[in-house]
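LAB NOTEBOOK - FOLDING QUEUE
OPERATOR: T.R.
BATCH SIZE: 2
PURPOSE: Compare the predicted structure-token outputs for two unrelated chains run back to back under identical settings.
PRIORITY: normal
REVIEWER: second-year student, initials M.K.

ITEM 1
FIELD SEQUENCE / FIELD STRUCTURE:
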Amino acid sequence: MNKAFFKIALFLILFVGFVSCDKDNDNEENLLPAEVLKENYTIDRFKVLNIATDLPSTAKLTWSIKDSIISENADLDFISPFQKSYPLTLKVEVNGETKIYNASINVIKETGTYSKYISNVFDFRPAVGQFTNEIPLYTSGNTEASIISAAKKAIVGSNTTMISLGGFGGYVVFGFDHTIPNMNGRDFKVLGNAFWGNEANEARAGSCEPGIIMVAYDKNKNGKPDEDEWYEIAGSEYFKNTTTKNYSITYFKPDPNKLPAAGNEFWQVNTEYIKWQDNAGNSAYKSQNVFHDQSYYPLWIVDTSYTLKGTRIADNFYDQSGEGSYWVGKSFEFGYADNAPNNDEASNIDISWAVDKNGKYVKLPGIDFVKIYTAINQEAGWLGEVSTEVSGAYDLHLN
């Protein structure tokens, strides 16, 4: 190769490299497009508006309504129960560059009519208990589907009765015909049968049988609660060392041919009625009492045992009389079902209390589904097992 040709080739390589670098610099300096948002968005009340952006992953986004920051995610999920117009601002910062984008979100009245109450029951599986097969009532030949249908009849709508979830882990899953928005303050109420007693030294105690509350937002819009959409409401006991995460208990179907092991108390018919064991190495029996003589094991479950799982909180019932005649269930501060009377603020739930499986708070736009399960594994003397009851639920934002 002669010198002249070599110099020309070297010049071309350097020139192309310079132009390429210069273009890269231009791209870095002009990462943000002129338009990111539409001028206007329209959405029904209680519906989630998703605004997706196609911005660099290194960009910092701040979504605001007036002076209030509502999200810092790449995409915005917006919902409102109010029929009004919202001025939306998106601030984007990347590589020292900042741009402001503006839009308007118009929330309009929905064409149909929503109910603030439960609209459907997806699943129901109680633990063993003195009200199992009674509330709701089991009749011969009932299947799991027909029991779920009975639970639906009991707690859907405004004119409800009640279902019992039995001992620890017994659960119900239900949903609404709209998304309950995650607003400032508490968002929905769960109804049970808790009540205050006349306790001289316990202002908020009586009959309280707390249930864990799980919530789910139907992100993929398939109309059903998927397993990866569930988050636990972190009630007042969630972060305490008296709470056990990932607790499980197995209940064994009783042998009908086994003779009862009657106790010394007037109310005990069989002290070794239904065997249970948990994943902490504990094992014992659930007692049968004189007040309920039906099977305490769900009769539509054909398996000889079944396992229920969840978060277990500390026992809350104690024998105030000291002689077994008067048991009192203390209420926890917040965040549980059947933990306070229906007219009490403590039966209202804030969606912002939701946490992921690692205990980290999550920001949900709202919820479509709720799961409730009994949170305590305790028997309170003649009162029987601590069992969460549910008699409905409703959206606090929909009047």
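ITEM 2
FIELD SEQUENCE / FIELD STRUCTURE:
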Amino acid sequence: MPDDTDAARARRRAGTGIGMLLVLVLGAALLIALPEDDGPDDAACRARTVASWRADDGLTGEFARYGDDPARTDDWTGGDGTHSVRLPDGRVLWLFSDTYLGRVHGPPNPVGEPVAWRDATAPMVRNSAVLMRGGRLESTLPAPLFSDPSPGRWRWPVAARVEPRSPGSAEQVLRVLLWVRTTGQAPWIYGVPAATEVATLSLPRLELESIIEVLDQSRVPDASRRVLFGTTLVARDGWTYVYGGDDGRPAARPASHAYLARVPRGALADPAAWEYWSGADWVPGARPRPVLGDGRRKGVGSAFSVVRDGGTYMLFTMATGAEGLTTVASYWACAPEGPWHGPGKEFTPPLPQGEVAAYNPQAHPVLSGEGRLVLSYDVNTLEITGAADRLSRNVSLYRPRFVTLRLAPPR
């Protein structure tokens, strides 16, 4: 029995870490978001592109410092699916999907490499949250923050927003979008899309109050056409625009389509308040129509992202084909639903040596300003066989790295 348990635990560690990599490598995307603006568009729409970028060693080093700290055995030592949200008291909450806890040792590691390492028995949970104050990571909330809804089903947190408890309310709460996935067989080794949920957490204590399902996809027979919402949020004119995607063809990069919903500010946790873009209008409860993607040259990953830059909306996603493992492409539009122009200029963030991939770049407006955008991207091994051991031997492979970029009109 112990041998079976240990084997199952090892398979789960390998499957979850690589699972999140694969779902996002399908076209895992870049979230670039400026500080929230609920007001009307004040500037004319114009084409935008990535003008320049540079590595942010300070932020990358902060996560390495926190993850390597051996003082505690129940805190974050690595994770992917990186999102952030600023709380009203100034703290920043960092949300992660599959997460390693435990303790980090070294260097050198047991095979002699000059890098820090964790025990192969280190626990992995489906999600976690870490608090930052004044630019310094302080503590990990009890993990997982969002428990599994049932055996074989789990929750990955995506975008989050502080909003009124209900439209017009003076009380604020934290709303977190969740993706529910279920255990699947190849090619769905990272899980089958099942539903979108919204969690409500109290402020400032961050106590979980409720989890509400807003869109069930389990009855859609073709799993590649199931849509999960919450990869990114954009605020405008009292609405929260919620983007989502399908998983397209699991073997292609990217093969997914982008979809769009909108919800009145303060109503994210009310399924009846959600409206979906039908291709011509906003319709409650209808099957949404894609706003972008032809499954070939144009497409997104299931975790693409959108930002509003003045009167222009920009969408970022991993590039098509083999470059989708390393390179980010962009689109632009004059309205949340498009039409989208592109793909435009691409850029490739720095990668460590070896068989690795960059995926799930996310923007962090809470750290951005003065025309610069701070972005993280996750890094993981491409060696599926023995992946769990490789991630344990080199903890830097499963943590966010950061870059700063600037947007400008294309030349």
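REVIEWER COMMENT (ITEM 2): Residues 153 and 182 are 4 Å apart (CA to CA).
FOLLOW-UP: none requested
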